[in-house]
Amino acid sequence: MKNSTSISTTNRIILIVCSLALLSVIFLPIWRIELxxxxxxxxxxxxxYSNKLAGQVEIINGLNHYIGMKTLHADDFIEFTVLxxxxxxxxLAFLAVGLRGNRKSIYxxxxxxxxFGIVAMVDFYRWLYEYGHDLDPNAPIIVPGMAxxxxxxxxxxxxxxxxxxxxxxxxxxxxAVGILLAYCTFIEFRRSRAKR
Length: 196
Description:
Structural class: alpha+beta
Distance between the termini: 18 Å
Number of domains: 1
Radius of gyration: 21 Å
Number of strands: 5
Order of helices and strands: HEEEHHHEEH
Oligomer: single chain
């Protein structure tokens, strides 16, 4: 006889699949910032992975120098050291809850995953804010009152550059995993209420 606190087989399978999907996020770009300007018709792209920066980082650093922004180096961010382990932890947590199949565990997993997502986005916003506002006062180009913070998500015009910020494939997987976890949590909550 099945334990009344066990989650459904379907939800267990979903959680195990989510675990494997999260593992892939460690190796895929999570976010990207695209820059468009007349002098770069092909555009410039900054790709953010869990442990590194990729894309046209050196060109972007060269342009940022003119407006006084700090250069981007992965070594300057503790997040690139910690994030792969945090994602790996959640991948294992999804797997453990999927295999164990305990309803209380899925509630804890949902709460922890939502908290992690909020903290990650707040940290990313802080990172963008600092880089866009903490400018070198001796920069070759100074526009009084101008800040160069890229948008957290969406489009923003920064002088002659259009900046577009959006999740990349790893980010979309992360969002999909969160939606699936919310679905499983809701179904299990509803099942538990129906049995009372």
